[in-house]
Amino acid sequence: MNSKDKPDSALVIGAGIAGIKAALELAELGHRVYLCDRKTHIGGTLLQLDRWFPDDHCGMCKVLPIFSRDRSSQYCLRRGLVHHNIEILSATEITGVEGEAGNFAVSTATRSSGIHPDLCIGCGKCSEVCPVEVDEEFNQGLGKRKAAYLANPTALAKTYTIDAQHCTRCRACEEVCPTKAINLDMQTSENTLSVGAIILSTGFDEFDAQAASQYGYKRFPNVITSLELERLLSGSGPTRGSLLRPSDDKEPQSVAFLQCVGSRSLERNYCSSACCMYALKEAIMIKEKYPGTDVCIYFMDLRTAGKGYYRYFEKARDELGIRFVRCRVPRVMQNFKTHDVIFSALGEDGQPIQQQCDLIVLSVGQTPSAQFVQVSEMLGLQRNRWEFCRTRAFSSVESLRDGIFVCGSAAAPKDIADTLTEASAAAGNASLLLAAPGDMQGDDQQSGEQAEDMKAAVFICTCGEEITRALDTKELVSFSGQLAGVIHAGEVSHLCLPETLAQVQTKIRDMGATHVIAAGCSALTGQKLFGNLPLEIVNIREGLAWVHQDNRSAATRKARKLISMALARLRYARPSRTVQSSIVSAKGLVIGGGASGLSAALRIAEHGHQVELVERSGEVGGKLRSIHSTLEGEDSRALLDDLLKRVSENPLITVHTETVVEHISGHAGAFYAKLQGSDSEPYELDAGAVVIATGADEGTTTQYLYGQNERIITQTELEERLAAGQMDPQQLNSLVMIQCVGSMEAERPYCSRVCCAQALKNALQLKERNPDIQIYILYRELMSYGFMEEYYTRAREQGIVFIRYEPDKKPVVEAAEEKLSVSVNDPVLGGAFSLSPDLLVLSTGVVPADNSVLAGMLDIDVTEDGFFKEAEVKFRPVDVIKDGIFVCGLAHSPRNIQEALVQAQAAAERASLILSRGSLVSGQSVSEVNETWCSGCELCVQACPYGARVKDADKGVALVVEALCQGCGACVSACPNKAAKLRQFTDRQILAALDEAL
Amino acid sequence: MPRNAMLEVKGGDITGTVRGFLEKLLEKKAVDALLVPVEVPSKKNVVQTMVTDIAQLADVSPLAPVMPVNTAKIISSVTKVAASTKKVGVILRSCELRALVEMVKLKQADMNNIVTIGIDCFGTYSVTDYAVFSQEHDTPAGEYLKKAASGTDTLLRPACKICQYPYPLTADMTIGLFGLPIEKEILVHSGTKEGDQVFEALGLDGEADPAKRDEALSALKSERQKLKEEFLAQVQQEAGGLDNMLSVLSACVACHNCRIACPICYCRECLLDSPTFVEWEAEKYLDWASRKGALRLPADSLLFHLVRMNHMGASCVACGLCEDACPNSIAVYKLFCLAGSRVQETFEYTPGRSADDELPLTAFKEEEFKGFEK
């Protein structure tokens, strides 16, 4: 097939955060994307959550594009998403797929929502008259809604929808709808999409806690799920953010969280990976709001195996006084008079625990989504035993079918950071199958012309009677008409309707208006309504008519002020101009030649860009060279060989071994680096993007007599000896492993994430080679997250003994002559236990390399723990706040090989996104420097979070790297002399608007 | 290790002793040039002078109690375009040194090759007072030191009377006077590596006991603290609130001399000198006037001071030169001292304490001002 016939578009199924991110990545690369969801709105589970661990705030908007940002909406994703290259197909199901990778024909069926979205003005009258009441999904059934309802109450476009299942066809809504938008004869429309690749981001279904009857969910009113709790704590929830328990609407004095509901059980023997952390977050939210409430988390292992997670746990325990109790076999009963709930379980020591509390929260796990199961049948994808998508070895985003990729919880339970990393990686994979995008730049080249005299047209929307009820639009029209510079002022009935808009647009053209003011509702925001004419939108509906229904004259006065302010802003608006761009060097620089670096370099090269890869040591391969297999039994040697072969054969990749980065500076699109080899001349290069993959080191220790006795080795030493045949398991009678040596301690308060899996892997391998060997694993929390849980189970089945120890009662190791002795306090048996192993193996964890030098040169941050800091923990997980720099692998945080590889792909994808552009285009609203007034004090340089301001050494004044500027205005605030200015927010405009307001 | 040495004062000529020390600096090539106060021929004033020839040190007068210009401003103009490639020793009073540290943070001065020689300062007179005083005495500096030591000098500028840091905070070398029998000996102290190099070059080490000076300083500090609190309370009463402030500032002729004298005001061209706030259409002025029935003009005189206060507050070193520069004797220093003290307390920031302290404006702390949130 001719490559010209290949589609340049992709389909993303599932419009939760993973789907949104994947779609945006592809759209930013210039591809067309169909983003489809069976629901009537996008946003997925995250719409129902307010903030996330471990930084306790929302950063969803951080997934929006940085470059060419005017092509996308720039508001909260809960309110919706508009992007030039993304077509959102809501209420759409996939009905069939034909073809193959690079050329799929996908048939879709789109349900009519019963209300025409173009005609609906969001007045809510249909909902008012609707006689049907059902549980409201948005609030997890804690509130009620009608059959005609707003599915996403937070969306900017208040588009109502009809719930076909519950609608009784009474047709009351049809009669009352002012715009005749309702048609209850709901049809399904079918369509066929031609796409080159498909990304599945169908997320997860929450475990149905009713299926585990011991928790009393739905039988006892005060047993709720974690998602229900999120709704109760949310300002947009049924209680407006007050935590009131369902039985009596009282504030609970004691709340207990029960972990692993639906996870780590016989039926679902996997860990849902995110519940420990979200329970911590919810517990913190409760404690911060109600410090007097007793909050206790009942758990088996507290899995804080992510970046910054252990510190978060310590904050919860030590600063907020949240209690943690280890237990198993939990049951819930209730006092039928008070509805208080009684929780009982077995403590770690086997003694029964009982606690009465006001509210119980079930930390429900992730189960495969029903939608995924259905779609995977259609696509012929394989599923694993728990019905999640099966993926390829070392590539968790590739399904077993070519051209179909997955991200997020479709393939395994995940948290948001890992989900978004996968979304970028999946998009990168998909992009390789698509025809080169026809539209790489396409940003509107706006004219720099400005008419000498302002001829403004003012349109005042009445919204039927919605606005006229609260204020006098007629008066507003006559007021506006008299303002200087206004050539037309008029009423329109529904400005948002396509028909009206078309009329208005014609009018504007005919009368030759140069500026437009549209007074109406918030749905007008972010729309390119009138071509490129300077436009001000004045919200006189939600922000005015709705809140001032009782004082007509004051409301009208306020509307007048708002219109004259908008006019003042327009009057002093500077002409929009051709958006600035800076030329990009199309080369990628990858620092570090381990698995992550190699993989990132390959992916960038696959996108067609040259890559320079710098490795400090004499050979590439890094830590992967000391990994001989994975817990899942995959061949990591084969992976290494494959990576080495592909890198050496790729003509676009240049590898510099025994080379360090001596100097690096610059910004996205234009980095300059000087490399220094051990015995060669310095090598200089320009690069458009930098990927940091400098890895980390295995921890060293002096604890437990390490280094003093040859029978005491590290986990990696054990693995190497086993692989090299230097050790005969047959000769071993017993072996002890100690976990968390140096990790989750005061000096290194983080979990090294990889050691538990490594211990399980080595222990199982020893057992396989000598089933009689006695193995004891002394651990603190067993971090077998995700599908690793099964290996933990298998290890116990094979007789490996797990003994937990407390950090203040560490095992004691003694070495006398030939014998080692390890004594440990066993909390289960409640006494000291003495072991005499032949070999003691220490899991010494992961320590960051000295990242400060590179961080210093690049002017970027490292975390408290010494790893490179990402721009946003969850929503920009591989980006560094300074654009153009990406981080992956162990340089980012401890992670296993699969996780590092997916991160490398994500980083490479993000880097390619810059390299693929000829130039970086900024938004219209960027900062500027008045060089006469600038004294070069660099306050703005320090204030700019994006590295978009630098000092021009020759002129001694600040300089704006426009492509990096996000228009936040921090520089403007910092500058004492108004030498820093923001286009579209000039002093002149703001002072004039203030004058009108006062 | 801080190093100390005593310099013997012969015949009670303290200025001569310091001059001898400075001559040695040039002679031993510890520095290539000196920026020091030199008496003008009329003896009515001293001015900062860049000296490379030892002979030109004959009229050096580092102890004369007058500070026409804050030296930090001079170092800024000397080093801003390009740092010095030769070693320059600079004599600085504490407020000059603190201002210099702030200028460095604001990238308006470069300390490369600058060796700071701080002097203990008993305070200074206004330029006009000094011009009179210097004519009344043969050795004005010596006369002043006698008076200063007795603590009864009525000519001192208000800023000096309550100065909290009369001793240099970060100097490479310090010439110590407080608490010492300065008729007989004065102290030379090194606080940095650069200072140590000078000690080496001059072969300065010897017996020295700075304890007496430390004692005197701590007594002085607590006394000044009290005086400052009383002073601020009084200013609060006189100038606090918009009405009082307007009446204090009513004499302002918008000459902006205070801005020019201020060592912290660093903008090479001030926005407030531009037409931004004053040149509007007449219609605008009439519109503003009609809103309240009256409009004080020039419209920007209060704004000018408020803006300056806002910009300078955190870094104000309380040198008081703004007030000296005012042709109408407006108590500018009083206003700035009050505002500056409050801002600095709020941010726990002492301007000039250390080049490592981040400027409050750019220091981002995730948790701060919890009390302000409520």
Secondary structure elements and pairings:
The complex is a heterodimer of chains A (998) and B (374).
Chain A: E1 9-13, H1 17-28, E2 32-36, E3 86-89, E4 92-100, E5 103-111, H2 125-129, E6 133-135, E7 144-146, E8 148-149, E9 161-162, H3 172-176, E10 188-195, E11 197-200, E12 204-206, E13 223-225, H4 226-233, E14 254-261, H5 275-289, E15 294-299, H6 309-319, E16 323-334, E17 341-347, E18 352-357, E19 359-364, E20 366-368, H7 370-379, E21 391-392, E22 395-399, E23 404-406, H8 416-433, E24 456-461, H9 473-482, E25 486-492, H10 498-511, E26 515-520, E27 535-539, H11 541-545, H12 552-571, E28 581-583, E29 587-591, H13 595-606, E30 610-614, H14 636-649, E31 653-656, E32 659-667, E33 670-677, E34 683-687, E35 689-692, E36 696-698, E37 712-714, H15 715-724, E38 734-738, H16 755-769, E39 774-779, H17 789-797, E40 801-804, E41 812-816, E42 819-826, E43 831-835, E44 839-842, E45 846-848, H18 852-858, E46 885-887, H19 897-915, E47 919-921, E48 927-929, H20 939-943, E49 949-952, E50 957-960, H21 970-974, E51 980-982, H22 987-997
Parallel strand pairs in A: 1-2, 1-11, 2-3, 11-23, 13-19, 14-15, 14-19, 15-16, 24-25, 24-26, 26-27, 29-30, 29-35, 30-31, 35-46, 37-44, 38-39, 38-44, 39-40
Antiparallel strand pairs in A: 4-5, 5-10, 6-7, 8-9, 12-20, 16-17, 17-18, 21-22, 28-47, 32-33, 33-34, 36-45, 41-42, 42-43, 48-51, 49-50
Helix pairs in contact in A: 1-8, 4-5, 5-6, 8-19, 9-12, 12-22, 13-14, 13-19, 15-16, 16-17
Chain B: E1 3-8, H1 14-27, E2 33-39, E3 46-51, H2 71-79, E4 88-92, H3 94-105, E5 114-119, H4 127-136, H5 140-150, H6 158-161, E6 173-176, E7 185-190, H7 193-202, H8 211-239, H9 241-249, H10 257-261, H11 282-292, H12 301-312, H13 321-325, H14 332-347, H15 370-373
Parallel strand pairs in B: 2-4, 4-5, 5-6
Antiparallel strand pairs in B: 1-7, 2-3, 6-7
